[in-house]
């Protein structure tokens, strides 16, 4: 981490300062951790640090609303592990993150959500927690412990909400479970974004969940029924509902990248590129643990040791950016899916933009879209 100074980046391609914008020859000034000014051409003044951005791209800081760890550390393993994994992802452009927690007992999840709430009080780069489980369909459990899955009863919902102290940002649940629609109403009333996922829901059931207040689809296509021409399933229900954001894991393993590009075309401004990263991200192949389940990582692909189901990813958000742009998605659309769209999906429209007065969260990339520099609230880390 560096010290907070005034910073001027000029002659840069500024992408996503406002969602969808793409401006060449731009400049931007950061001061006291905030965006102080944005302009075009030569109307800039000196700062403590002046960076010539010729040939480079500057974007808002990336926002990951679904990730489980990295650098050999899992978010479920406590504060030190969260810090280790966050450092890895920050170096790859993720300036703000939701800490995703895998299925565990309600007692354990409450304790972990409370810990994340504690961390969020001292580190604004941690924007809260995401419970991916235990309210999931056993038939689409993926890398979750089946014995711990359960229906979302009112007492469990209230327990995790109380423990999180207003920092629970997202909950994934299967809407066909008993009590699910009531749980959606309770979570959304508390300001939590509810995602349909790990589900056997058909299109009608997904639509009922969206009407009840669910606004996300957890890692679209994965751990849910696929698209059939007579049974369109939850993905098509989400694509046709303007209220719903679709998470995509753009590693080329979870979803074919041509299909990822097709979703961008079918649902403009409603794609959130997430990592779903587990501990192996940035740490190489080997044997790992995810929520008490053994995971083998070979060739950067994480699969359960027993059964071979995909068990998260080894993705970073800058790699996701390169992957989708390589698949033909316009850069401004890809950046939006890493910034404004996921930020909006969890009710943080102050993030994912570079507006005057807003946080100086930014990523400087070279012409190959590799990370050169990252700022969180004006504090810099070199890649």
TrEMBL record:
<comment type="similarity">
    <text>Belongs to the metallo-dependent hydrolases superfamily. NagA family.</text>
</comment>
<feature type="domain" description="Amidohydrolase-related">
    <location>
        <begin position="57"/>
        <end position="378"/>
    </location>
</feature>
<dbReference type="GO" id="GO:0046872">
    <property type="term" value="F:metal ion binding"/>
</dbReference>
<keyword id="KW-0119">Carbohydrate metabolism</keyword>
<dbReference type="InterPro" id="IPR006680">
    <property type="entry name" value="Amidohydro-rel"/>
</dbReference>
<dbReference type="Pfam" id="PF01979">
    <property type="entry name" value="Amidohydro_1"/>
</dbReference>
<feature type="binding site">
    <location>
        <position position="143"/>
    </location>
    <ligand>
        <name>substrate</name>
    </ligand>
</feature>
<feature type="active site" description="Proton donor/acceptor">
    <location>
        <position position="276"/>
    </location>
</feature>
<keyword id="KW-0479">Metal-binding</keyword>
<keyword id="KW-0378">Hydrolase</keyword>
<protein>
    <submittedName>
        <fullName>N-acetylglucosamine-6-phosphate deacetylase</fullName>
        <ecNumber>3.5.1.25</ecNumber>
    </submittedName>
</protein>
<feature type="binding site">
    <location>
        <begin position="222"/>
        <end position="223"/>
    </location>
    <ligand>
        <name>substrate</name>
    </ligand>
</feature>
<dbReference type="InterPro" id="IPR003764">
    <property type="entry name" value="GlcNAc_6-P_deAcase"/>
</dbReference>
<dbReference type="GO" id="GO:0008448">
    <property type="term" value="F:N-acetylglucosamine-6-phosphate deacetylase activity"/>
</dbReference>
<dbReference type="GO" id="GO:0006046">
    <property type="term" value="P:N-acetylglucosamine catabolic process"/>
</dbReference>
<feature type="binding site">
    <location>
        <position position="219"/>
    </location>
    <ligand>
        <name>Zn(2+)</name>
    </ligand>
</feature>
<dbReference type="InterPro" id="IPR032466">
    <property type="entry name" value="Metal_Hydrolase"/>
</dbReference>
<feature type="binding site">
    <location>
        <begin position="310"/>
        <end position="312"/>
    </location>
    <ligand>
        <name>substrate</name>
    </ligand>
</feature>
<feature type="binding site">
    <location>
        <position position="132"/>
    </location>
    <ligand>
        <name>Zn(2+)</name>
    </ligand>
</feature>
<feature type="binding site">
    <location>
        <position position="230"/>
    </location>
    <ligand>
        <name>substrate</name>
    </ligand>
</feature>
<feature type="binding site">
    <location>
        <position position="254"/>
    </location>
    <ligand>
        <name>substrate</name>
    </ligand>
</feature>
<feature type="binding site">
    <location>
        <position position="198"/>
    </location>
    <ligand>
        <name>Zn(2+)</name>
    </ligand>
</feature>
<dbReference type="InterPro" id="IPR011059">
    <property type="entry name" value="Metal-dep_hydrolase_composite"/>
</dbReference>
């Amino acid at each position: 981490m560096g010290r907070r100074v005034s910073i001027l980046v000029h002659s840069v391609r500024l992408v996503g300062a406002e969602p969808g914008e793409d401006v060449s020859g731009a400049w931007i000034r950061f001061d006291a951790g905030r965006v102080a000014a944005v302009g075009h051409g030569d109307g800039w003044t000196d700062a403590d640090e002046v960076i010539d951005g010729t040939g480079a791209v500057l974007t808002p800081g990336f926002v990951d609303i679904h990730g489980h760890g990295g650098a050999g550390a899992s978010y479920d393993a406590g504060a030190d592990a969260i810090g280790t994994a966050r450092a890895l992802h920050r170096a790859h452009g993720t300036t703000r993150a939701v800490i995703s927690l895998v299925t565990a007992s309600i007692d354990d999840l409450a304790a972990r959500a409370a810990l994340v709430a504690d961390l969020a009080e001292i580190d604004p780069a941690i924007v809260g927690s995401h419970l991916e489980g235990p309210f999931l369909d056993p038939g689409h459990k993926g890398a979750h412990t089946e014995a711990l899955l359960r229906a979302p009863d009112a007492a469990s919902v209230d327990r995790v909400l109380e423990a999180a102290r207003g920092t629970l940002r997202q909950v994934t649940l299967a809407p066909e479970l008993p009590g699910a629609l009531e749980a959606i109403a309770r979570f959304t009333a508390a300001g939590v974004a509810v995602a349909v996922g790990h589900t056997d829901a058909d299109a009608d059931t997904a639509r009922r969940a969206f009407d009840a207040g669910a606004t996300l689809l957890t890692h679209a296509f994965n751990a849910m029924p696929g698209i059939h021409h007579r049974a369109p399933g939850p993905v098509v229900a989400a694509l046709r509902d303007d209220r719903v954001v679709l998470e995509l894991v753009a590693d080329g393993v979870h979803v074919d990248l041509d299909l990822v590009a097709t979703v961008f075309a079918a649902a403009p401004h409603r794609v959130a590129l997430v990592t779903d990263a587990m501990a192996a991200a940035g740490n190489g192949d080997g044997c790992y643990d995810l929520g008490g389940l053994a995971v083998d990582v070979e060739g950067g692909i994480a699969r359960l040791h027993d059964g071979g189901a995909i068990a998260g990813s080894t993705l970073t958000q800058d790699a996701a950016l390169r992957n989708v742009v390589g698949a033909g998605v316009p850069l401004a659309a890809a950046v939006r899916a890493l910034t404004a769209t996921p930020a909006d999906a969890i009710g943080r429209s102050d993030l994912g933009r570079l507006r005057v007065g807003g946080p100086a969260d930014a990523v400087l990339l070279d012409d190959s879209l590799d990370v050169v520099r990252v700022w969180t609230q004006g504090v810099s880390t070199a890649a």
